[in-house]
C-alpha cells in the first residue's frame, strides 16, 4: 500500500471515523439549537472571512494617507471614517483582522504543539519524567501571563514577532495539563493495556488512542485561546511592545485613537469593538464546542492568559 | 467538586490574597483650583512627571523637579531672546581667555534663612556638581574640580579648561543651582534661593510653597502643586475637568476646541527646540548627498505642521530654532516639496531600492504620526523606509553603533547658550559623532573638515558677530549637503483657566516664572 | 496526608527554584550588551569602554551565569532584591512603596467583581434556563471579551470627561479608585459569575438542601443561608488564585488611568532596562502565586482529605 494511503489509514481514518458519525448526529442539532453557539459560529466565520478575503475586498490600501481628510466621521466613502492620517479605517480593520487572526492561529498552534507534546510524554511516561515535566508546567503557570509576556517582549525588543514569541512561551502549560489528564485516564483503559501486551509500539498507541482522546479538550482550549491571544496581542501593542507603525493592528489602532476620543471617537472604538467581538465569538464557540464534544464536562474556571 | 462543605471548611478555606484596601486616601485636596486672588494655590501639570514612580524624592539631576518648580536657582538666567541675564550673579567678566570673574548679588536669602555668599557658590560647584557627575559635566561646562575659587565674600572666579565664550549662558541652567552646604539634595533636603520652597514630594506630585523672603520680589501664589500626567490627552482632560489650573502642551487635537472655550486661555510661544531628521551620512546609501537632498525635496514641512500638529509649530528650513540669535531661516537653502526634482536626484544617486531604517523615540510627541507621513512622502519618490519606534535606551543603542539611516528627533536648549546644539550634533568631536569618529574616522552627522573649523570658531569666539557669521555658514553647508531634514521649530502651548494672569512665557519653558501668578 | 504535605512542599520548593532561575535568566535575552544599554540611558550619552567595564564589574555582569545567579539568589533569600540601576534605590523599597496603590486597586476591583458577580450568578442559577440566565451569561461573556484598556478609556470618556463625575487620572482618593476598579473588576466579574452560577447549581441540587426544605423553612432562607454560603467556598479560593491574573490586568489599568503602582513601575522599568526591578517584581508575583496555591491545597487537604486535588485548572 502506498505511503499516503497507509498514513491515512493509520492516523487520519481513526480520527475521521470518530467524528463522521457525529456529523449528522443529535449532538450537532443540539449544538445548533443553542442561539449562543450559533452566534459564536457565525461571528468566527465572519472574522475568518474578513481575514481571508478582507485585503482583496478592502476599498483602500491600509497605509494610504490623505492628510487633507483626516479625522473624518463615517460616511459612504469611508464606512468607518478616517484616522488621524486620513487612512480609511474600514480597510485597516480588515487588514487588522488578518493580522490578528494570523497571529492567534500561529501562537495557539505553537502552544498547542508544545503543550500537547509535553503532556503526552508526561502522561505516558509517568514517573520521574512526569514529575519533572509537571514542575516545568508549574513554573510556567506561576507567572501571571501578561507580566511574563510583557517582560519577554520588552527584553527582546518591541515588535510583533517578539510578542508572538512571548505569548507562545507563556501559554503552553494549560495544554500540557489537559492532555496529561486525558492520557492518564486513557492509558488505564483496557484496550490500551491490551495493545501494550500485544507489543504495539508506543508511537502507534499514542497516535491511535491517546491523541484522539485528548483531542476534545484540546480543541476547546485552542478555540478559547484564539480569543485570548487576540486580546493579549492587542494589550501588548497598546503598551507599545507590539506592532510598529504603520501596521494596522487593532491594539495599536486603539492606542493611537485614544488621543482623539473627543473629536474622532471611531478611531479607537471601532478596533475596540472588533477585538471584543472576536474574543466574544471565540468564547461562545469554545463553550459550545465543549458542550458538544463532552457534555459531561466539569465546570472549569479559567481566566485566560 | 461535588462535596458537602461544612462550616469548618468554609472558615478554613479562605485563601491568601486580596486586601480590601479602601483606605488609601493620601489626603490631598485634589481639584483645588486657585483663583482666590493673591496667595492662591494652583495646580500645574507639565509634560514630565514631577516625581516618577519608583523614586519619590527630589530628582537632583533628572526628571523635572529642578525645572519648573522655581525652588532652586542658578547664577545666571535667560532673557526672552536667549541672552544671559544677571540673576544670583549681578555681573561677570572674562578677565582672560579662560577665566571668568562673577560678582554675586548681595542680600539673597536661602530657604533656611542663611545669606548666600561665595562660599556657597564654591561649595555648589566643587562639592556637588563637579564631583558627582564626572566627565559629562567637564565637557559641558568646561570646568574641572579645583577650577572654582572664592575671591572675596561676593566674588567668585571660574577657570575654564579652554576658552569658552558661552560659559555664562551655559551655567544659566537649573541643574547648576546654588545651595548651601547644609542642603542635601540627594536626600530630599532641598534648599535654594527661589520663590518657592519644597514642601512635599510624593508619587506623581510635588508641592511647593511660598517663600516670603525671596530676593526677587513679592511672591503672589501661596502654593503650587505639580502633578504627573505625561499623556497629553490626560493633561487636557484634567484642565477641562477642573483638576488642573495650568497645563503645558495639551493634546494637539484639542487645542482648537480649547481656543473656542471661553473658560480657557491658550498661549503659545516659540521655544528653543526644533525637530528634524538626522541622517547618518556615513552609511550606505544615505552617504550619497543626492539621496539626502531628494529626501528633503520629498517632504513638505507645511503639510506636517498643518495636519498632525494642528498648526502648532513653525515649518523649518534649518535644524536650529530661530529663537536663537545665530539661527537663520531665510539664509538657508529652501527645499520646497518637488517630487519630480526628488525623483531626478534619486535617479542620479546610488540608491538602489534598499530599505532605509528610520528610528523614532516612543515618547516623542506625535512622533508616530510624523514618521508615518515621512514614510509616505519617501514612498512617493520611490524610497522605501522602515519605521522603528523604540524606547530611548534601545534607540541610543542603535544610534551609538550607527546602525540606522534616519533618526527622527530634535534638539532643544535648556539654557540661553545654545552653541552646544551645533557642537554635539555636527562636530566630529560632538557627543553624537565622537565614538565612531575616534574608532573609524567616520561619525554620524559630521561633515568634518571646514565645517568642524567653523563650529570651533563659533564656539570659542567672544565676538557675537563673528559667531553668528560662522554658525550661519556652517548651517548653510549642512543644509546644502542635506545632513538633516528640518521639520519644524517647536511652539509650546500653555493652556490655563481664563482667570489666571501674571504668567510670562519664555522660550525655554522650564524657566517660566510663576512668582507673579494670579487668578 | 503527611506524605502529601511533604510532597507538595517539596514540589513547591522546586517550582520556586525554577521560577527564580527563569526570572533571573530573562535579562539575558536582551539583544546587545545590557551594560551599554543601561549606561547609555543613565548618562544620556554613549558610555566609554572604561565606563562599561566598570559598570559590569560593579554589577557583576561579567561573571558566568551560574555565579551571577547564585549571588543574586543568596541576596534574595536574605530579603535583598538588589538596587535599581538608576540611582541607589533599593528594589524592595521601591516595590513596597508602590505596592499599596496596586493592592488598593486589586482589592477594590475584587469587590466590584464580587458585587457584580454574586447577584448575577445567583439569579442565573435560580432562574436557570430562562431569559434571565441567558442574558446574564451573555453579559458575562461580553465582560470577559472586552479589552479592559478599552473599557477604561470609555469610562474615562463617559464619566470623567463628558459628565465630569470622576477625576481623570492619578490616585489618592476613593473617587480616583472607582473607575479603575470597575475597568479591572469587570473581566473578573464575568469569570466569577459563571463559577458562582455553576457552584450554586450544584449546591442547589444537593441532598441536604432538600432536607432543609423538608424542615419547612421558607424557600428564601434555604437559598441564601445554605446554598449561597456553601457555593461561595470554591469561589473564595478561586478569588485568591486569580490574584495573579488581576495583577496582570492592573498593569494595563494603571497605565490607562495613570495611577502609580507596581504595574506602572514594572512597565517603566522594562522600558528603562532597569532589570533589578523587573526581576524583583516578576519573582515576587510568581512566588506569591506558588505560595498561595500551596496554602490553598494544603488547607483543603487538611479539612477534607477526600476532596480531589491537583485536578484541572485548564
Mind explaining what this structure looks like?
The complex is a heterotrimer of chains A (305), B (519) and C (314). Chain A is an all-alpha fold and 305 residues long. Chain A has helices at residues 3-23, 26-33, 35-57, 89-125, 127-142, 145-156, 160-170, 173-186, 190-197, 202-239, 250-257, 266-293. Chain A is 73% helix and 0% strand. The model of chain A is unreliable at 298-305 (pLDDT under 50). Chain B is α+β, with helices and mostly antiparallel strands. In chain B, strands 1, 8, 9, 10, 11, 12, 13, 14, 15, 16 and 17 form an 11-stranded mixed beta sheet that branches. In chain B, α10 links the parallel β14 (355-361) and β15 (384-390). The longest helix of chain B has 17 residues, at 464-480. Chain C has helices at 2-25, 34-43, 49-59, 65-77, 91-126, 131-145, 148-162, 174-205, 207-214, 219-241, 243-256, 262-272, 275-303. The radius of gyration of chain C is 24 Å and the shape is flat.
SSE string of chain A, helices as H and strands as E: HHHHHHHHHHHH
The largest sheet of chain C is:
none
H/E series of chain C:
HHHHHHHHHHHHH
CATH architecture of the domain at 96-305 in chain A: Orthogonal Bundle
**Separation, N- and C-terminal Cα atoms of chain C:** 25 Å
Bin the strand percentage of chain A: under 5%
Helix content of chain A: over 70%
Envelope shape of chain C: flat
| Unreliable stretches covering 5 or more consecutive residues of chain A | 298-305
Report, as a whole number of angstroms, the end-to-end distance of chain A: 45 Å
Largest interface: B-C, 58 and 79 residues
* Oligomeric assembly: heterotrimer
Determine the mean pLDDT of chain C. Answer: 78
Text of the CATH class of the domain at 96-305 in chain A: Mainly Alpha
- Bulk shape of chain A: elongated
Mean pLDDT across every amino acid position of chain A: 84
Number of helices of chain A: 12
Portion of residues within helices of chain C: over 70%
Low-confidence sequence ranges of chain C: 307-314
Structural class of chain C: mainly alpha
